[in-house]
Amino acid sequence: MPDPGRPGRGPADPRRLLVDGVGAARLMQVATVGGTGFPSICQVWFRPEFEPDRLTFLSREDREHAVNLRNDPRVAVAIALEIPAGLGERVRGVTLSGLAREIPDDVLPDAAAGFVSRWPRAAAALSRRAARVRSRLYEIAVVRWVLFDEVNFPDQPRVEIPGR
Asked: Per the count of CB atoms within 10 A, which of 41, 65, 92, 140 is most buried?
């Protein structure tokens, strides 16, 4: 039976909705675990890549989440695909679990070029001559996505999608 929100196209493809939605999003919230065992969360600008599923973000190496990642690479991420106008409106978002790392120097030029293509102002922060506390690029390898989409899947909005 065709999906009413997609006339003549059949049921919505969760993977396609995920790729399109994350590709259009700009900010993500990254949760890390610190030395105290308590989680910490921050918001970062990011660049997505798919197959393999990776999210790249820029951060100063002295930020709490960057310090946490050096000790424990496990992360959780949340990305709003749409911002509802108010309580009771249908929700569309993505969460994920993954492993993060600082991008190593041998692949940094390509990663930096891709990130700067989306965020041109990042070029100055990635310069070797940047401030005494350097900004670095970090990469999250996605293990598992969870698409929560009450618009396209009103009866079962939570759809787990393995990372590729």
From this structure: 140
pLDDT at residue number 36: 83
Q: Given its phi and psi angles, is residue 88 left (phi above 0), alpha (psi -120 to 50 degrees) or beta?
A: left
CA 19 to chain centroid, in Å, comes to 11
Q: What is the mean pLDDT of residues 37-50?
A: 92
pTM for the structure as a whole: 0.85
The pLDDT mean for the chain works out to 88
Long-range contacts of 149-153 (CB under 8 A, 24+ apart): 149/12, 149/14, 149/17, 149/81, 149/91, 149/92, 149/93, 150/90, 150/91, 150/92, 151/5, 151/82, 151/90, 151/92, 152/3, 152/5, 152/6, 152/12, 152/17, 152/92, 153/12, 153/14
